[in-house]
Every structure is written in C-alpha cells, then in structure tokens.
Amino acid sequence: MAIIDIKNITKVYNSDQIPVHALNGIDLQIEAGEFTAIVGPSGSGKTTLLNILGGLDDPTSGNININGVDLFSLNQKQLTEYRLHHIGFVFQSYNLIPVLTARENIEFILQIQGKDAKHFRQRSLELLEAVGLVDKADKMPSELSGGQQQRVAVARALASNPDFVLADEPTANLDSASTSNLLDIMATMNSELGITFIFSTHDQRVVERATRIVTLVDGKIFSDENR
Amino acid sequence: MSSRAIIVLSWKNVWRNPVRSGIVILSVVVATWSGIFMVGFFNGMTVQFVRDQLQNYTSHIQIHDTRYVDESLPEFTIREADQIINSLQAFDFVTQVTPRTVINGLISSANNNYGVTIEGVRPDLEVQTTAIHSYLIEGEYLTGSLRNPVFIGSDLAQKLAVQLRSRIVLTFQDKQGNITAGAFRIEGIFKTPNKAFNEGNILVRADDLNRLLGDEQAVHEIIVMVDDYMKSEDYALQIQSVLSNEVVVRSWKDLSPMLKYIESSMDISMYLVMVILIIALCFGVINTMLMAVLERTAELGMLRAVGLNKFKSFTMIMLETTFLTMIGSPLGLLLGWSFNAWYGEKGIDLAFFSKGLELYGFNSMIYPELGLTYYLDITLLMLLATVFSAIFPALKALKLNPVEAIRKH
Ligand SMILES: Nc1ncnc2c1ncn2[C@@H]1O[C@H](COP(=O)(O)OP(=O)(O)OP(=O)(O)O)[C@@H](O)[C@H]1O
Ligand SMILES: [Mg+2]
Fold first, then answer.
1. What stretches of B40-166 adopt beta strand conformation (E)?
2. What's the number of CA atoms in the CB half-sphere (13 Å) around residue B344?
3. For chain A, which domains are there?
4. Exposure letters B330-343 (e unless 16+ CB within 10 A, then b)
5. Where are the domains of chain B?
6. What does the buried/exposed string (b/e) look like for B388-401 if buried means 16 or more CB atoms within 10 Å of the residue's CB?
7. B225 C-beta neighbours (distance < 10 Å), count
8. Burial of B150 (C-beta count, 10 Å sphere; 0-12/13-18/19+)
9. What span, in angstroms and rounded, lies between the C-alpha atoms of B5 and B11?
10. B215 with B180: CB under 8 angstroms?
11. First to last CA, chain A
12. Distance between A191 CA and the closest CA of chain B, angstroms
C-alpha cells in the first residue's frame, strides 16, 4: 500500500514578472520501505517537490495524501506538528544546532515532541550507535566532520520514528568517502529497519544505490524506474 | 519537558557569542547602575536642599492668625497661643513647637537703613526647632549676656557696616499702630547658605520684641516640626481640624510653592532620566538581537522545518533577550544601590563647584539617596523594557519562512 499519494501537483512561482512553472503535474506513489532517489537537472523541481512533500511549501494545485491524511487540509500549526511527529528531514547543511552536542541535538527533537523524558538518553545513544557515532555523543557539531554531522542529522531525523525521511541533496557537501559512508548507513536503515527514504541528488554514485529512481525534467516526471 | 528544552537552548544561545552578549550585559549593568546612581545623586541633592530649606527657613508647618495671612500687621496676633501650643502636644507626629513674634521693620546703623523681617524667638525652643543658630560664625546666639541682643546675618552686617557689639536700632509699628523703636546690640552673626535670608532676616528675643510691641504675650507664628516632612500636608489638616478657624495651619507646600515645585518636579525628572537611559539601552539590545536572529536564519529555518512551532521559536528568542537583560539588570541595580548606600553615608564633596551651588542654597556635600519605591519602579521599568526589546527580534524570527531560510544557504 502506498504511504504517500501525490496527485497532480503543480507549483507556480510568481515572484518575478514571469511566472515560473517549477512543477507541472506530478503524480507519484511511494510505498513503505522504498529507497527513492529524485534526480534531474538543476532547476527541474527536485527541491520544490521535496518541500511540498514535507509540508514546508504549498502546491499551487493538486494534493498529497500521507497515510490517509490530506496534507494540505491541515493548517500551519497542524502541519508543523505533523512534520515533528511523522516526517524526518535531512538538509544539505545547517542540520544541527551548533550549541548542542550530537546527543543533545537528537534529544532536542524528542523533548519538543513532549515525550516521556525517561528514555531520551538511551534512545539518542541507540540512534548514534546506528550511525556509528556513539563515541561522538558529547561532541559539538563543530568538532565533527561534515560527514559525521550528516550522520547525526540522519539519526536526528529518525528520532521521532517518522513515516518517512526526506533528504534534499544530503551528500552535496561531502567527499566521496563520506558520501558512501552516509549512503551505507541510510541503505542499512532502509533494508534492516524498513525506513522509507526519499532523497534528491546530483551524484551518479548515490543514484546507483537507490532502489527506485524518479527523474524530473522541467517539473514533470520524465522516467520512473525500479531496480 | 519541551519548555525546559527551549529554556536550556535559549540559555546556551546567549553564550554562543560571549563577547557580544558580554557587551550587551555590560551595557545593561552600566546603564542601570549609572542611572540609579545619577538619580540617587540628584534626588539626594534635592531632598537635602528641601530638608535644609525647611529646617532653616520654612519649617514643616506654620500656624498664623487668619487676618495675619492676608496682611501681616503687628496687631494680628494668634489668640490663646498658649492653649494652641498645648493642644499640639497631643499629636504624636509633632516633634517640636516654638512660637515667634514676626514683624517687618527697619534696621538702622550709624551708616545705613534696611527693611528686614524681625523674628522674635524663644531661644531655648528655637534652637531645638530650627537650625539658624548652627550657622553662627561670630559671637553668640541670643544668650542675653547683652541687653536686647540681636542675631544678624553676615551679609546684612556688611551692608550696615556693623560688627559684634555694635548698636543698631529697630523701628516698627507697635500693636496700637504707633511707630516705636528700640536699641539692640549685635551679639552674634550668622551665615546661612541663603544670601537673601542673611540680608533680610534678623533674630531677637521674643520678650524684648514684645515689650516694645506693647503685648507681652504676642505670638504671630507658631512653628511646628513633624516626624516626616513628606506628610506635612496631611498633618497640617489634622492640626487644623482641632483648632478654630481663626487660625490657619499651613504645611511647607503651601508656604513655599517653590519648594513644592522642586520636590514634585524631581520625581518627573528622575523618571525621565531613567526612561531615556532605558530607551537607549533597548535600542542596543534590539539591534544586537536582530543581528543574532539574522545570522541564524538558516538554523532557525531548519528548526521550524523539523517541527519547532512558531510559539516555541518566538519564546526561544524572547528568552534569549530576557536572559541578557536579566543578568545585567540585577547586577546594575545592586551596584547602583551599593553606590547610593556608600556615598549616601560618606557623601560626595562638590567643594569645587560649591560657590555656584551655595548661591542657590545647596550644600557642597551631596549624600545620594533613593527610596525603595524608586528601586521597585526602576525594576518594573527594566522588566517592561526587556519585554519591549525582546518582542522585535522574536517577531523577526517568527516572520521567517523556513523554505526560503533553508534555500538561501
Ligand atoms: N522561491 C522561488 N521563487 C521563484 N522561483 C523559484 C523559487 N524556488 C524555486 N524556483 C524555481 O523553480 C524551479 C525549480 O527549482 P528547484 O529548486 O526545485 O530545482 P532543483 O531541481 O532543486 O534544482 P537544483 O538541482 O539546482 O537544486 C527553478 O526554475 C527555480 O528557479
Ligand atoms: Mg534543489
């Protein structure tokens, strides 16, 4: 069963005189446990699609249904709440709060979810263990390499047990070793824990790790292949 | 749980740029401290001035015959003054009472004549009530070792070209309206900080004056000192209520509109000084915090994206600003208070400027003082200022669009 059902999404930016059609009718279903790469040339609409999918941005038309919830029937406040509990995010950079340690960054999400405090520490250490950074738990982000920071970000994204994780070019700032390391971790979580990942990338080596590749061109789905 | 996380994060954010936060905190400290000290200084100066004026010249409360208030003629004496003086003993707040005979007349030396106010006093009571005697610079104070002694101001003595033991003649109307005159000898010379008083007022013994006046019991004025001069108006009303309306009881605020004005305008100017300082401070704090928010656009956008709601992001920035001022203001309050306490005890010597100050009747030693209510008001003002300056940066954080904030980087 599809956990995400995207129906005829369009997005038009009217910021300049000429309207920009960033997305031109996207239809897409994502199944639980998929490991999907969104690819395409620069400006093809990858970021726009991921933002809309994450409830960060409104589509101009169309709708998105996630596990039976019509995402855009929610108001701003409910959307924020929805993101907090159901969606994990990994951005290209600025993922971590610089004044908190790796562990505290993960715990922060649990805390603002208002969950029971008892297991926070254990849970955050488990997650750091899963991304291979338990020994760096008490390090500040500035003391971690870019790759390590992204791994903490993945751990943080998983803290809330989200329905799926959105990652917009998570490896764009990483060298090839760190890139493959991060991808290994994400792939392991996908295969062993069944975490659904949707990520965009320009990197051919990253694309190759995906089990499904959706290619966008000019805001339309050009191809959609399973491997 | 979640509010605790926000508080902790805000606190850590304050120390993200310790130098900048330190400067803001320091400026809060310095502004509060200097503001309080400055206000304490001017308040001390004013309170002291008012107190001195009351102690030396105006006194706290005066009682006169109703007719005397309209026209101060010698015949308008207070009826049954003894009885009134006795009835004043019933009031707990009354600390001293002394009757006076007050007449406008002419003082003449061999060289000159001047119009003066002649105050006939009871030396034993007067020294306990007012402070003129303490300004003696030569001779003695109305001891009576001379016949008809007079205590005159240095400035007047100079104008009359007289010295200790010089003979002068006082001329005035007696009770019947006839011109009378008496010879007096200068027994003492005073010099108060007020030149006009030194020139225009002389003290003699009431008994000597009354004999010439033709009424041994004459009293024109009853001087009343009370335990708290700030309550004089209320006390005057209480006294009036037990006396007949043949007499008028007036507090210093009625007697000296100038002092009343000085006293009341002090409050306004003190708050004005504080408000101006605090407004300047607010701009500094707002500016710094806006910068802090702007620098963290991407991070704040990320936080909103992952699910930190608007209320929590608003609170977080509000708290950061609040922490900055909350660290600084108690420190500033404490420093200001200790400076006021220390110098309130020791005094600040403005001898350097004292020539100018004395002209206006100010003392050259200033003892800063500030009532508790002012500290409370200032604390309240600081709290208001904190909320005020916290709101703008927090609103800025609220307005930020997560998508744009993230995309920009
Ligand atoms: N806020 C905006 N205002 C106007 N146009 C925008 C805005 N955001 C995106 N666009 C435009 O929408 C189109 C899609 O942009 P998007 O960022 O989604 O592409 P992308 O596939 O993520 O590109 P890249 O690979 O460079 O990240 C582009 O033409 C872009 O210029
Ligand atoms: Mg993009």
1. 61-65, 94-108, 113-121, 136-139, 149-153
2. 19
3. 2-226 (3.40.50.300)
4. ebbbebbbebbeeb
5. 3-54+260-408, 73-219
6. ebbebbbebbeebe
7. 20
8. buried
9. 10
10. no
11. 19
12. 24
Which two three-digit tokens encode residue B135? 């300004």
Distance from CA of B323 to the nearest CA of A (A): 16
Q: Which of B34, B199, B27 is nearest to B107 (CA)?
A: B199
Q: Which two tokens stand for residue A126?
A: 């488990």
ipTM (interface pTM): 0.94
Q: B interface mutation test: which of A108, A123, A150 has the most B CBs within 10 A?
A: A108
Site of tokens 């400027």: B353
pTM across the whole model: 0.79
**Number of C-beta neighbours around residue B80 at 10 A:** 15
The Cβ-side half-sphere exposure at B391, using a 13 Å CA radius, reads 5
- Quote the ligand 2 centre to A56 CA distance (angstroms): 14
Q: Output the six-digit token pair for B370.
A: 């500030």
Where do we find the tokens 């104070």? B141
* B304 vs A contacts (CB less than 8 Å): 80
Please tell me whether residue A192 adopts helix, strand or coil conformation: helix
Q: Ligand 2: distance of its center to the CA of A81 in Å?
A: 24
Joined tokens for residue A57: 């941005």
CB count in 10 Å sphere of residue B91: 16
- Under DSSP, the state recorded for B400 is -
Q: Which residue has the tokens 């206006």?
A: B360
Binding site membership of A19 for ligand 1 (Cβ less than 6 Å): no
Burial class (CB in 10 A: 0-12, 13-18, 19+), B95: middle
Partner residue opposite B403 with nearest CB, options A51, A95, A113: A51
Determine the 3-state secondary structure of B225 from DSSP.
strand
Read off the tokens for A6.
Answer: 């995207």
Cβ(B403)–Cβ(A51) below 8 Å: yes
- Kindly list the distances between the CA atom of residue B233 and the CA atoms of B88, B89, B229, B255, B290, in Å, as whole numbers in the listed order: 16, 18, 9, 11, 51
Residue B199 CB coordination number (10 Å): 18
- Per-residue confidence of chain B (409 residues) as pLDDT tens digits? 578 899 999 999 999 999 999 999 999 999 999 999 999 998 898 888 888 889 888 899 999 999 999 998 999 999 999 999 999 999 999 999 999 999 999 999 998 999 999 999 999 999 999 889 999 999 999 887 788 999 999 999 999 999 999 999 999 999 888 999 999 999 999 998 888 899 999 999 999 999 999 999 999 999 999 999 999 999 999 999 999 999 999 999 999 998 989 888 888 888 888 889 889 989 988 999 999 999 999 999 999 999 999 999 999 999 999 998 889 989 999 999 999 999 999 988 877 766 665 656 666 788 899 989 889 988 898 889 888 899 999 999 888 888 888 876 5
Asked if residue A14 has its Cβ within 6 Å of ligand 1, the reply is: no
Rounded to an integer, what distance in angstroms lies between the CA atom of residue B351 and that of residue B365?
7
Which atom of ligand 1 lies closest to the CA of A23?
14
Residue B403 C-alpha, separation from nearest chain A C-alpha, in angstroms: 6
